[in-house]
Design a protein that fits this description.
- This is Conserved hypothetical protein CHP03032 domain-containing protein.
- This protein is mostly beta strands.
- It has a single domain, classed as Neuraminidase (6 Propeller).
- Helices cover about 5% and strands about 45% of the residues.
- The strands form six sheets. Strands 4-5-6-7-25 form a five-stranded mixed β-sheet, with no helix packed on it. Strands 3-2-1-24 form a four-stranded antiparallel β-sheet, with no helix packed on it. A four-stranded antiparallel β-sheet has the order 8-9-10-11, with no helix packed on it.
- The protein is globular and about 60 Å long.
- The mean pLDDT is about 95.
């Protein structure tokens, strides 16, 4: 691929980086952070992350050809941290001005970090009647297009506190931010809307399906079934990288995914799958066993072979000093 990967697990409190060692072996670097969630790599190569109560911007402090410990060729260091309070922030994007735009799930809106307040509201679904601290529709996913928010996903159109929990099976929607219109409905806990080659892709998580939204007809066209609760989606050429999670309480109760797994005589698993979009086949995967069972988002790091990151409060962050080598 000529790239490496990063993915988040809020359940384990770890941001993972997957790269290759010089001998070709897989290297997994872990950075412990409070509830890491949404990830976005911007055009400047910075990595933005939503977490429990912060929006963090990580910069790669290594120049081309530089390495740490003789094999890390990218080191992401937190250079800007906005303390937002616990907003249950999910997906995040970066606009044309380099500002983070994130899904503020607790307040049912898209928001930006503020220099004075916890957040600045950018947009909210027309069916949400007030800006209140009530997770009503479980707004979660964000697709950027042209450096601006374009589509969002939500579990329901509920306008009452926690109302989305009763609509998990078929109340899910995808909305056009520019028009405020619902472009697809009847989904089951949709996540991770993404634009790729002019198409709107989305994970219909409650059915375990990766598919495309036909904007004209308003229908969801499933392309691939994956054995898990899907969250996290990126594209690299004709490949889609999808994140899979196990159920939180042994079963995906009330979701069609349970029946689909039984029909396939399959157990759910946690990890990443690489899907060939031309054939629908899984051409590679990373399966995670043990205590880690839930992932949220993932990002591709082009041109990076073996990445690492430092947590803001770690001793490594306190002791790593970098500066410009350009003479003044």
């Amino acid at each position: 691929m000529g790239a490496s990967l990063s993915f988040s697990s809020y359940q384990s409190g770890i941001l993972y980086f997957v790269g290759l060692k010089k001998d070709g072996g897989l290297n997994i670097h872990q950075s412990h952070l409070p509830k890491p969630m949404g990830l976005c790599l911007d055009d400047q190569g910075a990595l933005t992350l939503t977490s429990a109560y912060q929006i963090m911007r990580f910069e790669n402090v290594l120049d081309a050809g530089e390495q740490i410990n003789k094999y890390f060729d990218a080191c992401y260091v937190p250079r800007l941290v906005h303390v937002t309070g616990n907003l249950d922030a999910h997906d995040v994007g970066v606009d044309t001005e380099g500002r983070a735009v994130f899904v503020n799930t607790r307040f049912n809106c898209l928001a930006r970090p503020s220099m004075r307040q916890s957040f600045e509201e950018v947009w909210r679904p027309p069916f949400i009647s007030a800006l209140v601290d009530e997770d009503r529709c479980h707004l979660n996913g964000l697709a950027m297009e042209g450096g601006a928010p374009r589509y969002v996903s939500a579990v329901s159109k509920s306008d009452t506190i926690d109302g989305w929990r009763d609509r998990r099976a078929d109340g899910g929607i995808v909305m056009d931010v520019t028009t405020g219109e619902v472009v697809c409905e009847g989904l089951s806990m949709p996540h991770s809307p993404r634009m790729h080659n002019g198409d709107l892709w989305v994970l219909n998580s409650g059915t375990g399906e990766l598919g495309v939204v036909d904007i004209k007809s308003g229908t969801f066209e499933p392309r691939v079934f994956c054995p898990g609760f899907l969250r996290g989606l990126r594209f690299h050429g004709n490949l889609a990288i999808v994140g899979l999670s196990k159920p939180r309480y042994k079963r995906f109760e009330g979701l069609a995914l349970d029946e689909k797994l039984r029909a396939a005589d399959s157990e759910p698993w946690c990890g990443l799958q690489v899907i060939d979009l031309n054939t629908g086949a899984c051409v590679d995967w990373l399966r995670i066993d043990g205590a880690v069972s839930e992932l949220y988002d993932l990002e591709i790091l082009p041109g990076v072979t073996c990445p690492m990151a430092l947590a803001p409060t770690s001793p490594e962050a306190a002791n790593l000093i970098t500066y410009s080598k350009t003479k003044i």
